[in-house]
């Protein structure tokens, strides 16, 4: 069954949109889905990075996209539906941590706004576009998985913009899940802690702790995150993982602070 023939009813395979697909978790999830037979539209700001993720897979569609721009998000979903006929999954993954280690009183408004525009506004715009597509297609429905981070539960020191957006994303997930019920749109969230990517390389060297110390932290293989996302994605639409937390076993999360 190719992407155009997928009817979305079995919840096993279909057409996915992955944002932030050019690196890290987005790259790992994209490749895991492609291995599983999904067609995937890869979205992100850097075309070359997206091409590297896609490789020569014929079921990968590269669409450079700034998720904070409504017109670009609209074009992303139009191109995906135009190529593959429908959208069965959105992995809402694009995000930025912003400037690290900056005290609240010194954080420039422009830096705050950039994080909010990418992490929260971008997630909303992509979810909205996915809703429109999933509600209108036949068979109706699909799934949205938001990347929340363990910062959706507890902050790290001097991470006010990132943490605020990730807390907000939890509210977005709950509202989307409720509003999607009549249309067979299942919405869940995965909160990830210390997956080994370029972004978390510093964890091995040492990062600030709540008590003021600098300490290295354990990380986990990003492939384990990708497999978890795929498991969530391939459930039938009658079942939903509302919230999942996947983290390096020994990281300071339980008991943080």
| Main beta-sheet annotation | 7 strands, parallel
Helix/strand/pairing category = alpha/beta
Low-pLDDT ranges: 1-11
Radius of gyration: 18 Å
Major beta sheet, strand line-up:
3-2-1-4-5-6-9
Q: Portion of residues in helices? A: 25-40%
Shape type: globular
Average pLDDT metric: 92
Described by its quaternary structure, the protein is: single chain
Question: How much of the sequence is in beta strands?
Answer: 15-25%
**Cα separation of the termini:** 50 Å
Task: Give the total of beta strands.
Answer: 9
The number of helices is 7
Order of helices and strands: EHEHEHEHEHEHEEHE
Family: Belongs to the short-chain dehydrogenases/reductases (SDR) family.
Keywords: Oxidoreductase
Pfam families: adh_short
Organism: Streptomyces cellulosae
Overview of the structural elements:
This protein has helices spanning about 25-35, 45-55, 70-85, 110-135, 160-180, 200-205, 220-235, and strands spanning about 15-20, 40-45, 60-65, 90, 140-145, 185-195, 205-210, 215, 245. The protein is globular. The chain has a 7-stranded parallel β-sheet, sandwiched between helices. The chain has a two-stranded antiparallel sheet with strand order 7-8. The chain contains 7 helices and 9 strands, in the order βαβαβαβαβαβαββαβ. The longest helix has 28 residues, at about 110-135. It has about 260 residues and is an alpha/beta fold. β4, α4 (about 110-135) and β5 form a beta-alpha-beta unit. α4 runs parallel beside α5 (about 160-180).
